[in-house]
Automatic annotation (TrEMBL), chain A:
Residues at which [4Fe-4S] cluster 1 binds: C30, C33, C36, C94
GO MF annotation terms: 4 iron, 4 sulfur cluster binding; glutamate synthase (NADPH) activity; metal ion binding
Lineage of producing organism: Bacteria, Pseudomonadati, Thermodesulfobacteriota, Desulfobulbia, Desulfobulbales
GO BP of this protein: glutamate biosynthetic process
Ranges of residues in domain 4Fe-4S ferredoxin-type: 21-50, 76-104
Protein name: glutamate synthase (NADPH)
Pfam families referenced in this protein's UniProt entry, alphabetically: Fer4_10 (PF13237), Glu_synthase (PF01645)
Catalysed reaction, written as an equation: 2 L-glutamate + NADP(+) = L-glutamine + 2-oxoglutarate + NADPH + H(+)
Similarity comment text for this entry: Belongs to the glutamate synthase family.
Top EC class, one word: oxidoreductase
Organism the protein comes from: Thiovibrio frasassiensis
Protein residues bound to [4Fe-4S] cluster 2: C40, C84, C87, C90
Domain of life: Bacteria
Automatic annotation (TrEMBL), chain B:
PROSITE patterns membership: GATASE_TYPE_2
Domain Glutamine amidotransferase type-2: 2-362
Protein name: Glutamate synthase
Cleaved signal peptide residues: none
UniProt source species: Thiovibrio frasassiensis
């Protein structure tokens, strides 16, 4: 057999059928307005000339043949870096419903191309693990019936807040208060925190929208929501604004943006909600942050004190520190001192088997204000697929272990444990969060849920979109390009933030009321939890139900 | 639903009168058990010295009794009085009660060098040792209390029947305070220890309603590694331990108990004269916030009595009486039965902010509001 030389048949040649998303285009409806191609964030759509044969039925035998037609059509690129990401923006703008992406069940061929030029696949966004998460499967099964009538979520008063900051043992509190000694700062906050997403990762409009929404929750609705910045500093006007009190400033191993923050201290009108020192994150444990060059715009460059358009990788560790003990001594104490011991300072680590040792170290340090553990389902700005999909520790067991360890020492909630990683991954944000709280967390952080809920982020666990890292976010959420982020209206984001938190609060009451809890958050109330999996029940020390 | 009755009077009275009040409150109640605590004792056939510790419990077998004797001997206690209840065995449901114990001991001579705190600690450890011994031998020995001037009895059955079965109607024992609770544990297994009132170092409480915050509170108390914070066969036991923790370990005034179990809200604290202290206390004691619904009735070693509600106030309780004689009950008819000749218009049903305190002189009821200034100087 002779090979057909004119066909490019190399190991890396692809057809649209080999890509994760295939564009379905109906030429009969398409008016060739070109909107889809213009809006496509990855430039996969191209208008191309094509020629097709028009068979004609001719009865007389002397006149066989065809005629041809030349036309303009829309085609999908098969280049890997221009592959369709399934975001569906083309479908959103098409006036004639002529185009939409369809997920391809066959993806092996594409995986072969994942490491082109020796670079393993990277993405922004979320872990590719669709289906119900463990947290989704936990149910609240302790319902007050007769001896203790259930409460009315609509009418009774509920106290839904939690504490961020070190809580002294009562004896020690009374002693210090008597002696007039220092009492560690404690904040009363809403237990659902907008987790660390940096000003470089999010677009200015997204950031503004979140901040406006958070301020409204606090000042109008009395829901003390706080949000964390992530690495990379904070816009100077925010540092000098009264909104700073709703913001947890993050310092990470790259120290990006920290000189700005330190310089702003004398001009701050109020203290930040807390300082989070990032040692690790759920999406890429043991790896530093990475802001890819696409997103290092002029503004971001100025904020972080770096040149424009360069990759900004943070080292995987704080290079200046030798151990967690030293880190606690140096970083936590220094940060506390910078704000005159009025601001809770706490570390954020990745969910891992060493979480317990970090925790026990913190318990013995009087300045540590909390521990934030980010489990494997956490999202990120940019990470290698393998880190996001397969490195780290699921959050439920990790938090539970840490909490029970504290219980055994009689120190639970002295160091509040905050949990993140997959909270609201499938939309059940309150259920996920409350399950973690009843397992022992004092509160939870959520990232992608708030992006989806407040800004309509298109990303999913089945690797839809997830181009947050390259600054092409079709929604303008994670892009630094004004052409893109102007698509997002900050006011609308703010409104959605407020609506989201209002509904979380109502749902919290709907969980707490039947359990008969209203005066305090049911932290560690594991007798209210059940799961239909014996092994999980045993591991988490909760009830097995089926 | 539990029934609670408590009477405190300057003149000792028979516990049977309180059991009659329990009978008055019988409606809607299954009467499956009785717990009784007497304080300020007088015996018809023994001149009791109020300093001497009294052991209350049950030896279910002869062998258990022998072990009890041995343990007390070894600890250095001398038996001064062994009260024989006039037991009518046939009237008691459980058939394995060898002996109901009410014994007055003389403290070990070696304790004379110990401080009051140390003596109190030793008394608790001795009771716990007896309890542990019973548990190690198939629960054949229960030890409810070991404390001066306090007697406790617990049994399964209808309260009045148990009173008759133990001969409490004979007037041989009278006391200035009597706390009674009816109904065995409903949420967890039947266990004599699980019956109210709960006792630790002279502090005793009883409760109606279920404590929904039980598990986190229990976890925290257990973590204190304080030997007395054990048991928890009932979710209500933690109320006694929190009261003990607040008054004996934190050494805060009784009025603070309410602030610990049902703290004020932020808006309220900003207006409170000691808001700053109380807010810190709320944070530090956050794990001890009860969620109720509960009415908690308690007594302290100095014969102070008190009643508090949880913040939701979904359980009833009434207090009424006259100088020298007061009663608290979960149902109003219980108060009627205990002190019929009082001015009913002065009965009081506490709201969420109240602590009702009947001081040892029993002259008048103190109604203390959480919004009031606390009797504590460092916070002012
Ligand atoms: S779905 Fe998104 S990436 Fe795919 S063609 Fe449409 S706009 Fe482009
Ligand atoms: S919509 Fe934007 S933020 Fe969401 S996954 Fe796509 S690129 Fe990321």
């Amino acid at each position: 057999m002779v090979s057909v030389r004119s066909i490019a048949n190399t190991p890396s040649s692809l057809t649209p059928n080999d890509l994760p998303w295939i564009i379905e285009h109906r030429e009969d409806r398409c008016t060739l307005c070109g909107k889809c191609a213009a809006v496509c964030p990855v430039g996969t759509l191209k208008l191309a000339y094509m020629r097709k044969r028009m068979p004609q039925l001719v009865l007389s035998s002397s006149e066989r043949g065809s005629s041809y037609k030349t036309f303009v059509g829309i085609r999908q690129s098969t280049e890997v870096n221009k592959r369709c990401i399934g975001c569906g923006t083309c479908a959103m703008v098409c006036p004639n419903e002529a185009i939409h992406p369809v997920q391809n069940a066959e993806r092996d061929r594409f995986r072969f191309l994942n490491s082109q030029q020796g670079e393993p696949a990277k993405r922004g966004g979320r872990r590719n693990d669709p289906g119900a998460s463990l947290l989704d499967r936990i149910i609240f099964d302790r319902i007050s019936m007769l001896t203790d009538p259930a409460l009315d979520a609509g009418r009774h008063e509920f106290s839904c807040n939690t504490l961020l900051g070190r809580v002294l043992p009562p004896e020690e509190y009374v002693r210090r208060k008597l002696a007039g000694e220092w009492i560690p700062p404690v904040r009363e906050i809403f237990p659902f925190v907008i987790g660390s997403m940096s000003f470089g990762a999010l677009s200015p409009n997204m950031w503004l929208g979140l901040l406006q929404g958070v301020a409204y929750c606090n000042e109008v609705l009395g829901i003390p929501v706080v949000m964390a910045t992530g690495e990379g500093g904070c816009p100077p006007w925010v540092l000098r604004s009264p909104f700073l009190k709703y913001i947890i400033l993050q310092i990470a191993s790259g120290y990006f943006g920290w000189d700005e923050i330190i310089r702003a201290i004398p001009e701050m009108q109020c203290d930040p909600a807390a300082i989070e020192i990032k040692y690790g994150q759920g999406a890429k444990p043991g790896d530093g942050g990475l802001l890819m060059w696409f997103k290092v715009s002029k503004l971001i460059a100025r904020l972080r004190g770096v040149p424009e358009g360069v990759d900004l990788p943070s080292p995987p560790v704080h290079q200046t520190l030798y151990s967690i003990e030293e880190s606690v001594m140096k970083m936590i104490q220094t940060m506390s001192m910078a704000w005159n011991f009025r601001v809770p300072v706490y570390p954020k680590i990745s969910g891992s088997t060493s979480a317990k040792s970090v925790l026990n170290n913190l318990v013995r340090n009087p300045y540590a204000g909390a521990l934030m553990i980010d489990g494997i389902d956490g999202g990120t700005g940019a990470a290698y697929n393998i880190s996001m999909d397969a490195t780290g520790h699921p959050i439920a067991a990790n938090v539970r272990e840490c909490y029970l360890d504290l219980c055994a020492q009689g120190k639970q909630n002295e160091i509040p444990i905050f949990a993140a990683g997959g909270v609201g991954k499938n939309g059940n944000v309150t259920q996920n969060g409350m399950a973690l709280i009843m397992l022992g967390a004092s509160g939870v952080h959520m990232g992608k849920f708030i992006m989806q809920s407040a800004a309509g982020c298109l990303g999913t666990e089945s690797n839809r979109c997830n181009v947050c890292n390259i600054g092409l976010c079709p929604k303008g959420i994670t892009s630094q390009n004004p052409k893109l982020y102007r698509r997002l209206d900050p006011d609308q984001v703010a409104q959605r933030v407020v609506e989201t938190f209002m509904s979380i609060r109502t749902e919290m009451k709907k969980v707490m009321a039947p359990l008969g809890r209203s005066q305090s958050l049911p932290i560690g109330m594991s007798d209210a939890l059940g799961i239909n999996d014996k092994d999980v029940a045993e591991r988490l020390n909760i009830r097995y139900v089926c | 639903m539990c029934r609670l009755a408590m009477k405190t009077a300057s003149e000792p009275f028979s516990p049977f009168s309180v059991l009659q009040a329990m009978e008055a409150m019988q409606e809607g109640y299954d009467g499956s058990g009785l717990g009784l605590l007497l304080r300020g004792l007088k015996f018809a056939d023994y001149k009791y010295n109020a300093q001497d510790p009294i052991l209350s419990g049950i030896a279910h077998t002869e062998e258990a009794l022998a072990r009890l004797d041995h343990i007390m001997d070894k600890a250095g206690f001398t038996l001064k009085y062994d009260h024989e209840y006039d037991v009518k065995k046939a009237m008691i449901e459980a058939q394995d009660r060898h002996k109901y114990i009410l014994r007055v001991y003389k403290k070990p001579a070696a304790w004379s060098k110990l401080s009051t705190d140390q003596v109190e600690h030793e008394l608790m450890l001795t009771r716990l040792a007896l309890r542990a011994d019973g548990e190690a031998h198939g629960n054949d020995l229960t030890a409810f209390s070991l404390w001066p001037d306090v007697v406790m009895a617990k049994e399964v059955g209808w309260p009045l029947d148990i009173g008759l079965a133990l001969g409490l109607d004979s007037g041989r024992i009278t006391s200035r305070i009597c706390m009674a609770q009816g109904r065995q544990n409903t949420n967890y297994g039947i266990n004599l220890y699980a019956c109210h009132p709960f006792f630790i170092q002279g502090v005793a409480t009883m409760t109606n309603g279920e404590n929904t915050a039980f598990i986190p509170i229990k976890d925290w108390l257990t973590g204190r590694a304080y030997p007395g914070y054990i048991g928890y066969q009932s979710d209500s036991e933690v109320f006694a331990h929190i009261l003990h923790y607040v008054t004996k370990q934190l050494k805060l005034p009784l009025a603070t108990y309410k602030h610990v179990i049902t703290p004020l809200k932020n808006e309220e604290l900003t207006k409170h004269p000691q808001g700053d202290f109380l807010r810190g206390l709320r944070d530090a004691c956050r794990r001890l916030i009860i969620d109720g619904p509960n009415a908690v009735i308690g007594t302290l070693p100095d014969e102070t009595s008190m009643l508090v509600m949880d913040a939701k106030k979904m359980r009833p309780a009434t207090v009424g009486g006259k100088p020298g004689e007061w009663a608290i009950a979960s149902e109003m008819c219980g108060v009627d039965a205990m002190i019929p000749d009082r001015d009913r218009s002065k009965d009081f049903q506490p709201m969420r902010e109240h602590t009702v305190i009947i001081p040892p002189d029993r002259q008048e009821l103190q109604i203390w509001s959480q919004f009031d200034q606390l009797p504590i100087h460092q916070a002012a």
